[in-house]
Write a structure and sequence with these properties.
STAG, coiled coil, about 55% helix, two-stranded antiparallel sheet, chromosome
Length: about 1200
């Protein structure tokens, strides 16, 4: 611990010796005549630099005048009005000028200047306290820091380094710049005076060990920047020593007659001084490294850890001879396992700076072999930026490894979807010969990118880690644009024959190349990344729009000619054709006319027609349909040409379908397989085109209806024909509806559509009972869509003329839809594991099957949410919530939420109905004498608890719904009297045990009302029973009577009972609003059944007793009580009890949910737990810190050790160490 020397009481009385400082300048005294001050030697004398000219505000070199002047600022009690902190914060002056002013002040009185510097660091930490001269003279550092800690504003956690705003963002850079300039300007004398640096380092070391985050963060940043500046000084000293040594050796090797002995002595003296300076710099760096870095690199705060790692990377890069060794690299290697992405990112950027310099590779061999696995794994990092930088680091690492070692990294390059540096890696793997780089003017297959394109295809196939080329293309887009846009080369590789000696692409490689080519064209034309990469479409700049237009022109000009050739070559390959047919979507169709490319358009249309005739695959046919849709754009002159081609194709398909259908449905003849295949293939083509094109003029409804009706009557129609007929008919109805909606239609059009729609719904309802599951799923999906489209929602947006089309399903249809869901969605996983041929499905098939079932459930739940079907049908869905939580929990929960928004009371009735259904099912299975501790009954209770949690914390919103739920539950419990008489409990009495889960959601006064309603069903004998069979009744009664105060408090958000550091505030005085809430009683539901008369009337309602005083809340803020809303008017207000002593309850404050346990309080510790370290990485590593030992030079004397009490952090807490 450093102690300050005795400071004179009168600061303006300066000793002569204190004012005779040497000039501080960036120019070194090459004559070596100067000596260090503070060691009893004369000061170094160098050439005067600009820093020596008077900058204290008093003019040309004169000392500051006046007893209370420093740096040109007025002094009061030894403290500036204009602190150094304010000067740096404003950032208006050049930093060198600010430092020069401080140096002048230090030369004038070093104690006052140091006091100013100490206060600068204190204020930069956000502390409002000021270290006075008295404190500096008589108090130890630990006492000063403790005193400054008390000056912090505990209500705010902000301090300059974390504050928002442009001024504070600039402050950090100014703060760091100040420290760097300070050391640079003092590097020739002041830093060696054994006073300034010792005091500053001691202060920063003490602050960095503080429990206060602001002190720790600010002092660590200052110490690390100070260390960086000292490393730069050490590097300059090392260079000067080497130069001096060379000069000395050169002079000594001269002949005796020509040798200058005086110069030899001068050089020897200079080398000795440089050696002494270097030793002192080493001592300072050791003090900072041991006192700050080794503790703060594992600080609890991520920003502090990041600062340490960033700076050590600078040291190793700047002065590799001293710092680039395993003793320092191990800190970066360990920190690569940090939990925070910000810190991991700093590790990677630090390593990139080292690996970039190939001369340092030999020093990184051990580190690379030790931590290469971690670097590879970081390419899979969850943080976007970390993964990007990990790949960039791998790019540099691979340059210093053999090809055998590069295979270790190969698998990771594409598994992470963010690979911005892939192009550099691609060049490494491709290993192009230098001769190939000279052939830059060749294009196509012989161009410079041909081998790279092939390598890209090989990698895409060999990685086998990702199926989607779009993400590979996006990863390379910024750094390999030229390669990815070389479509001429890709086209040449696909169409041209390979050169002599060149290996041709395989079928699989051609498919991969076509997919990659399509993805590059899509990325260039759309200018946005694939799904999951970006946050949405961004606005393009003018330059990007121009590039987009140029790319589309280039694409159109090339592929308008090449696409027909590609389709002709690969016409029989469904996968290749499907990808190629997507290219016209990105064409600039005007070029067909302006470029006189009509003949190529005709060739394209012929190839599409041939593909339609050859293929029956759905994906291929839909691609053809979309291509026609893209080309049939009325804005372009090619529309008529394309429309004629399309109409001719549809005419042929429709005529063929009608002709085949006549033969297929002839009475008395059994259709053979060949006829069925012809009908199915034609129907597939028509359905695919009807999806994107309006084919209403071909009147496809009649033939499809006839086909479907025959299937119902005979029951032997092939399933694929039925599925596509249903889909095609569905498209017919939707296109007719679109035509009616978009244009004025006659009443006859509406009636015809209404008739067709209802007939079609009846057909779909019939097919819900088909023996084939796929047919039933298709019928169900289409029915849900039709019911949703033709519900009352169809009239929204001012379309009242469509009212005749509204269709509401009857009870039988609703029942069949619900039965389908129960039979095909809520099934055990094992029941759906076997495919039709009895073989076990693989994992992907199971996931696909689950996805299909989720879609079916979501379609039905949508009908519930939009009130297309009655809400009580949701009871059968809600009761599956717990059993199928993993598969459908999110869908069911969202359905509950939406139905509650529509009708709170009906939703509550539906929830209690689902519990009643489960209870009845349990009774049917186990009888009335079931065990209440059984898993079945416990599961129902758990489901009730989950239902209760969904009502949230605002009991006023759900007050009436919860009361109605209890009413229905009580009626159900007493619905079935016991045949053995009143001395035995009702058969459903155990249901009250389930109902008690909802008691906590009742307001206190409502509990009393529900209790009175319960008593209407109870006889006097029941109230006296204490047998086990009556326990449900007793527990339910107790839940309504007990905990009045607690359940009132449950209106408020959950308050943690564990330790917290927040302070309590005084509660606000009670208001009339609070008394209104307490005086409310539940009104009679008007829509209740006949038994509702048993509810208490207004005159019968008892007033709620006055609540006990509410405990004072520990929140730091008490918000205003919530105002009653108009929609809460269903409650009647009664005379209020006087409760002036009670604080208002906050119905609006957010807190922890009742569904979750309170979180443990977060206690910030200075040090991270050592348990989190990766032990296997620490194996063989020395945890002890090392001394910074700069590279030795000749005749270097042994370095003296620092005094332990100067820089030992432990000495800060030692009360016995005083100021000397």
């Amino acid at each position: 611990m450093i102690a300050a020397p005795e400071i004179p009481t009168d600061f303006n009385l300066l000793q002569e010796s204190e004012t005779h400082f040497s000039s501080d300048t960036d120019f070194e005294d090459i004559e070596g005549k100067s000596q260090k001050q503070g060691k009893g030697k004369t000061c170094k004398k160098g050439k005067k630099g600009p820093t020596e000219k008077g900058k204290s505000g008093n003019g040309g070199g004169k000392p500051p005048s006046g007893p209370n002047r420093m740096n040109g600022h007025h002094q009061q009690n030894g403290v500036e009005n204009m602190m150094l902190f304010e000067v740096v914060k404003m950032g208006k002056s050049a930093m060198q000028s600010v430092v020069d002013d401080w140096i002048e002040s230090y030369k004038h009185d070093r104690d006052i200047a140091l006091l100013d510097l100490i206060n600068f660091f204190i204020q930069c930490s956000g502390c409002k306290g000021v270290v006075t001269a008295e404190m500096f003279r008589h108090m130890q550092n630990s006492e000063i820091i403790r005193k400054m800690t008390e000056e912090f504003d505990e209500d705010s956690g902000d301090y300059p380094l974390t504050m928002a705003g442009p001024q504070w963002k600039k402050f950090k850079s100014s703060f760091c710049e100040f420290i760097g300039v300070l050391v640079r300007q003092c590097q020739y004398s002041i830093i060696y005076d054994e006073y300034m640096m010792d005091t500053v380092i001691s202060l920063l070391t003490g602050l960095s060990d503080s429990q206060v985050r602001a002190f720790r963060h600010t002092s660590t940043l200052a110490a690390m920047k100070l260390m960086t500046a000292l490393v730069n000084v050490a590097l300059n000293l090392s260079i000067n020593m080497d130069n001096t040594q060379r000069q000395y050796e050169a002079e000594r090797n001269k002949m005796i007659g020509k040798r200058a002995n005086e110069r030899l002595e001068l050089l020897l003296q200079k080398r000795k001084e440089l050696q002494e300076n270097q030793d002192e710099i080493e001592n300072m760096m050791n003090a900072i490294f041991k006192g700050v870095f080794v503790h703060r690199y594992r600080d609890a705060i991520a920003e502090i850890r990041a600062i340490c790692i960033e700076e050590i990377g600078i040291w190793m890069k700047m002065y590799s001879d001293a710092f680039l060794n395993d003793s320092y690299l191990k800190y970066v290697g360990w920190t690569m396992h940090d939990k925070q992405g910000e810190v991991r990112l700093k590790c990677l950027t630090a390593l990139q700076g080292l690996y970039y310099n190939k001369e340092l590779n030999s020093k990184l061999e051990l580190f690379t072999s030790r931590f290469k696995d971690r670097i590879v794994s970081m390419t899979l990092d969850k943080e976007y930026d970390v993964a990007v930088q990990a790949i960039k680091l791998l790019t540099l690492v691979l340059q210093c490894l053999s090809m055998e070692n590069t295979q270790l990294f190969f698998f990771c390059l594409f598994s992470r979807h963010i690979v911005s540096s892939y192009f550099s890696l691609l060049r490494l793997f491709s290993r192009r010969d230098p001769e190939e780089d000279g052939i830059m003017k060749r294009r196509g297959r012989q161009g410079p990118n041909a081998n790279l394109v092939k390598t890209l295809v090989f990698f895409f196939l060999e990685s086998e880690l990702h199926e989607h080329a779009a993400y590979l293309v996006d990863s390379m887009w910024d750094c390999a644009t030229e390669l990815l846009k070389d479509w001429e080369c890709m086209n040449s590789l696909l169409l041209e024959e390979p050169l002599s000696g060149e290996e041709a692409l395989t079928d699989r490689q051609e498919s991969a190349l076509i997919e990659i080519m399509l993805c590059t064209i899509r990325q260039a034309a759309e200018c946005h990344p694939p799904v999951g990469r970006g946050t949405g479409k961004r606005v393009l700049t003018a330059k990007e729009k121009k590039t987009q237009l140029d790319d589309r022109t280039k694409i159109t000009e090339l592929f308008a000619v090449a696409l027909p050739q590609l389709l002709a070559k690969y016409s029989v390959d469904a996968e290749k054709v499907t990808n190629l047919l997507q290219l016209p979507q990105y064409f600039d169709l005007e070029i067909y006319t302006t470029g006189r490319l009509e003949k190529h358009l005709d060739a394209l249309l012929r190839q599409i027609r041939n593909i339609v005739e050859k293929h029956t695959d759905t994906d291929v046919l839909e691609a053809c349909s979309k291509t026609y849709h893209a080309l049939c754009n009325e804005e372009f002159t090619i529309f008529n040409r394309v429309d004629i081609s399309r109409s001719q194709l549809i005419d042929e398909l429709a005529d063929k379908f009608n002709r085949l259908l006549e033969d297929f449905l002839q009475e008395g003849e059994e259709p053979d397989e060949d006829d069925a295949y012809q009908v199915l293939s034609t129907l597939k083509r028509i359905t695919a085109f009807h999806n994107a094109h309006d084919l209403s003029k071909w009147d496809l409804f009649a033939c499809n209806y006839k086909l479907l009706k025959t299937g119902i009557e005979n029951g032997d129609m092939p399933e694929q024909i039925v599925i596509h007929a249903l889909q095609c008919t569905h498209y017919v109805i939707l296109w007719q509806l679109a035509k009616i909606t978009e244009s004025s239609s006659t009443k006859e059009d509406l009636l015809r559509l209404k008739k067709q729609m209802r007939v079609f719904c009846q057909i779909c309802q019939h097919y819900l009972t088909n023996v084939n599951t796929t047919v039933k799923e298709q019928a169900f999906t289409i029915l849900c869509d039709i019911l949703m489209i033709f519900s009352h929602q169809i009239m929204s947006g001012g379309r009242d003329m469509l009212e005749p089309l509204v269709y509401t399903p009857d009870s039988s249809l609703q029942s069949e839809l619900l039965s389908f869901i129960l039979d095909h969605v809520f099934i055990e996983q094992d029941d759906d594991n076997n495919s039709a041929d009895g073989q076990q499905e693989d994992e992907a098939s199971k996931i696909e099957a689950l996805h299909k079932r989720r879609n079916l459930l979501a379609a039905f739940c949508k009908l519930i949410v939009y009130t297309v079907v009655e809400m009580n049908t949701a009871a059968d869905i809600f009761k599956q919530y717990m059993k199928y939580y993993n598969d459908y929990g999110d869908i069911i929960k969202e359905t509950m939420s939406k139905t509650r928004q529509i009708d709170k009371i009906q939703c509550a009735k539906t929830l209690i109905l689902s519990l009643q259904q489960l209870f009845n099912e349990m009774i049917q299975e186990n009888g009335y004498n079931f065990d209440r501790s059984s898993s079945t009954f416990s599961g129902i209770k758990e489901l009730a608890r989950r239902f209760a949690l969904t009502f949230g914390l605002d009991q006023l919103k759900t007050r009436e719904a919860i009361a109605m739920l209890h009413k229905d539950g009580i009626e159900f419990a007493f619905k079935e009297p016991n045949p053995q008489g009143e001395s035995h409990p009702p058969l459903n009495l155990a249901f009250l045990d389930i109902l008690s889960e909802f008691s906590s959601k009742l307001l206190r006064q409502d509990k009393r009302t529900v209790y009175v309603y319960l008593e209407k069903f109870m006889t006097f004998q029941m109230s006296l029973r204490r047998e086990d069979v009556w326990l449900p009744l007793m527990s339910y009664r107790n839940s309504l009577l007990a905990g009045g105060d607690d359940d009132t408090m449950s209106v408020i958000s959950g308050i943690s009972s564990r330790g917290s550091t927040v302070r309590s505030k005084k509660s606000k005085p009670s208001t009339g609003k609070r008394k209104v809430v307490e005086g409310m009683q539940l009104a009679l539901p008007e829509e209740s059944s006949s038994s509702d008369s048993m509810w208490l009337s207004r005159e019968q309602t008892l007033h709620t007793p006055v609540m006990m005083q509410t405990p004072q809340l520990t929140s730091t803020i008490m918000r205003e009580p919530k105002r009653l809303r108009p929609e809460d008017s269903f409650m009647s207000v009664y005379p209020m009890q006087a409760e002036h002593h009670q604080a208002p309850l906050d119905y609006n404050r957010r807190g922890t949910s009742l569904m979750e346990d309170d979180e443990e309080p977060i206690v910030e510790d200075v040090m991270m737990s050592s348990e989190g370290r990766i032990e296997d990485l620490n194996e063989g590593m020395d945890f002890d810190t090392m001394d910074i030992d700069l590279p030795p030079s000749k005749n270097r004397r042994e370095r003296t050790e620092l005094k332990p009490d100067f820089f030992d952090p432990a000495s800060i807490m030692d009360e016995s160490v005083g100021f000397i």
